UniProtKB/TrEMBL annotation:
Keywords: Electron transport, Heme, Iron, Metal-binding, Signal, Transport
PROSITE patterns per UniProt: CYTC
NCBIfam families given in the database record: c550_PedF
InterPro entries found in the cross-reference section: c550_proteobact, Cyt_c-like_dom, Cyt_c-like_dom_sf, Cytochrome_c550/c551-like
Highest taxon of source: Bacteria
Protein name: Cytochrome c-550 PedF
Gene name as annotated: pedF
A Pfam cross-reference name: Cytochrome_CBB3
Signal peptide span: 1-16
The keyword Cytoplasm belongs to this UniProt entry's keyword annotation: no
Domain Cytochrome c: 53-135
Length: 139
């Protein structure tokens, strides 16, 4: 009986994440970044109300599009990498840009879609900024 209850809870939890199709994000309140992709996070040094809005949008976009694989609150459960531990510098940004632009495919199976086909760079950099804000301090 306990096994059945655990299975039901697990199934309900998995379904709670919803559709796996990337969800669009309203970024109209964020600073516009233009068409050309930035090599480093242009929102990293934002302060005040702009930063608050970037973090709000980033958290929402992450929860709607990334959490099902990369973990709730940014904490990976082992399915996909913990994005909070990417260094907040050029090297971390370079890896992040590569992955959101190219996705991840192994043996012909799509593990992560090309997120730039679904989200603009404002949403994707807002996600990166939010991840940096929740990163463990001991890294």
């Amino acid at each position: 009986m306990a096994g059945l209850a655990a299975l039901m809870l697990t199934s309900a939890y998995a379904v709670a994440h919803g559709d796996v199709t990337p969800q669009s994000i309203d970024t109209s309140a964020l600073p516009n970044l233009g068409e050309d992709w930035h090599e480093t996070n242009p929102y990293r040094e934002e302060t005040g109300g702009a930063r608050d809005e970037i973090l709000r949008v980033g958290a929402s976009a992450y929860n709607q599009n990334c959490a099902r694989c990369h973990g709730l609150e940014g904490i990976s459960g082992g399915i996909a990498p913990d994005l909070r531990i990417l260094p907040p510098d050029y090297d971390g940004d370079e890896w992040y840009v590569y992955r959101v632009q190219n996705g991840a495919v192994r043996n012909g199976a799509v593990y992560m879609p090309k997120m730039t086909e679904h989200l603009n760079q404002e949403a994707l950099w807002a996600i990166r900024t939010w991840l940096e804000s929740v990163a463990p301090e001991d890294l």
